[in-house]
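If it is no trouble, can you show me the amino acids of a protein and the tokens describing how it folds?
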Amino acid sequence: MKAVVMECRIRVCGSTGRLREFIDQASSRALNAFPKPVKCSLVVEDSDSLLLRRQWHRENDVDDFGVPVGKDVCLAFADSSGRLTASKLESLSRDILADLELDPWATELPAGSSTSGAAESVPWILTLSTDVDRASREEIAARHPMLDLRAKPLITTS
């Protein structure tokens, strides 16, 4: 039986520390989201989204958070057991993105603090690939070799 393959790509722009924290939390949630035999792979790629960078600069101060960086956090899953569905991937994506929501209590300054104390706003773009065609499946297989997907059939006929 051919494995179901799905991918969640989150393009984010933020400070290095904030993105490192987000990637750690996202990988932990993704790896624990589905029981075996669902396979999970996380790949982080550099990206530069002018739209996200502009949005970050509009909502944050470089003096407080440093120069922002852009990353694509790519979470891919392969499953032949039927446990992985589009709705489950969408739900997992919402859980992962909840880590980027601003905490209203984080904007309060501790007594004697000299920094602005504002929480960093991290803009993001989510792309879900749930009903992948052959070309998309090959891209996911190439990007996520840990899933052990065959990008092309072993035997071809001419």
Q: What stands out?
A: The mean pLDDT is 85.
